[in-house]
Amino acid sequence: MAAYLIRRLVQAVLILLGVSFITFFLLYVLPADPVRQIAGRSATAQTVENIREQLGLDKPFVVQYARYLGALVQGDMGRSYLQKTEVAELILSRLPATLLLMVAAIVCELVLGLTMGIIAALWRGRAVDQTLMITSFVTVSAPQFVVSLLLLYVFAVKLGWFPIGGYGTFAHLVLPAVTLGILGSGWYSRMMRSSMIDVLRADYIRTARAKGLSRARIVLRHALPNAILPVIAMIGIDIGVFMGGIVVVESVFGWPGIGQLAWQAIQRVDIPIIMGVTLVSACAIVLGNLLADLIAPFIDPRIRLR
Amino acid sequence: MTDLSAADAPPQGAMARLLRRKMALFGLAIIALVVSGAVFAPLIAPFDPNDQMFDGLTLEGAPMPPGGQFLMGTDLLGRDLFSRLLYGAQTSLIIGVVANGLALVIGTLVGITAGFFRGWIGGILMRFTDLMMAFPALLLAICLAAIFQPSLWIVALVIALVNWVQTARVIYTETSSLATRDFIAAERTLGASTGRILFRHILPHLLPTIIVWGTLGISTTVLLEATLSFLGIGVQPPTASWGNIIFENQTYFQTAPWLVFIPGAAIILLALAFNLVGDALRDVLDPTQRGRD
Known about the structure:
- The complex is a heterodimer of chains A (306) and B (293).
- Chain A is mainly α.
- Chain A has helices spanning 2-29, 34-39, 45-54, 61-73, 87-122, 127-141, 144-158, 170-200, 203-210, 215-232, 235-253, 258-267, 271-299.
- In chain B, helix 2 (22-39) packs across helix 11 (258-285), helix 4 (81-117) packs antiparallel against helix 9 (194-230) and helix 7 (152-179) runs antiparallel to helix 9 (194-230).
- Chain B is elongated and about 80 Å long.
- The two termini of chain B are 24 Å apart.
- At the A-B interface, helix 1, helix 6, helix 7, helix 11 and helix 12 of A face helix 5, helix 6, helix 9 and helix 11 of B.
């Protein structure tokens, strides 16, 4: 176990190193010039050169990357070009909002997805099942921004139940979390359905039925706990999916998390922030996957960590 | 037992079995509708998609609602929404086919090479694939698209660069299990060249997987293009794309919701269609999935 964990953590560090290298390289070779953004249009060639030198952007790629890594190891992610603030500070101040949204979104996904999956499995092949499975297909085929705008239109503009956007109260959290919840639920409902169907076929369920237990008791006490675990183990992977998609939802709802921070930084070619957010997201994805792999053997003892 | 002849990988009658599934039929019908809308756009479209018509706006300068002279209403600039949707379908399909085709080629090449050659080449390729899996895909795509000057082809390229990873993983797993099978060993003993083994014996076995992932991938691609265009960094106006129609009109979505929800519905339907067909193809082409539900 310890050896496995150490190996996986070393792998994680290597992957993050790779991600940092590729992102840094892409931002280095791409044609947009951050110095122009900082200096503004009216700046003289001299000012532009001065800024470039100040930021160390006149140095060769290898030197720039080595400097970045050197600082990163000490927890220094550099300074935002435009906001003159430490990137680590900016990200830390935005992270709570993103984490809050993540937890709320995953709760919504689970509640919707598991319920749909269980119902579909219990009434397998019937009209309910078919309807739910078509619904799950629709949810994986819908782009985030369309669902966001639809919910905003219905529940904020027309009904006025929730604010149009922003942050601070529970009401602000509902629409973005439900948007992500709906979109992620299709994935969970399909997994829950097939897991539940597998469990319902198992011998111990037949035994329970033969003992004359009520259907409700069989489903809730005997089938559900076993069927739900493998689905729960997927939350780790879901964290990665979430991190990949926050830019859109946070932008549409004006949610002040790291997705919005990244989007603003991309528009202004604020490289240190883009690097920082990419690394933090990659970290979350890697840790999420690791979490999923670590949980698996506890849920299913047949799975051994290799 | 199924290994005996590789050439008949997609079994005869797969199409017939596909057509028996209602959901797949529904998906195929939508795809046919969108394809013909895109191909015949110049004939069907009642107006020039880029013509900012004087009578396309109300006296107050607001867009016209659906119905009347303009079937689906007009946009902020007085252009006919239905015509723009038809031309937007061209954009979605071109990107869907080109970007996804490219992603499929990259993914298949990486997967086959890594799965067949193992050793250090395979090791490096798969570690690189793992690395790409750790990238927040949308963020990477947004970064690339925002910093390049976006055009139809750049957007397609960006999407391909982000989307090949899944295919590579699946193809890798299949190839590496195929490579250890007896019939491949037999071919080797018979003195078949590596190229012959790869293209005549391995590739045909991978075709069903490639077809399934190719179809499902178009759905992902359509969604990604729409998202990039919605953020304003995808296909650039005046070229119509379903995503950029929403991008251009979103500030008005409270008063002119059709400008957001009609193209939105089009995106969902097209992505849904490819998902349904892809899923049905998986059931039809993959014998291990048969009878699962």
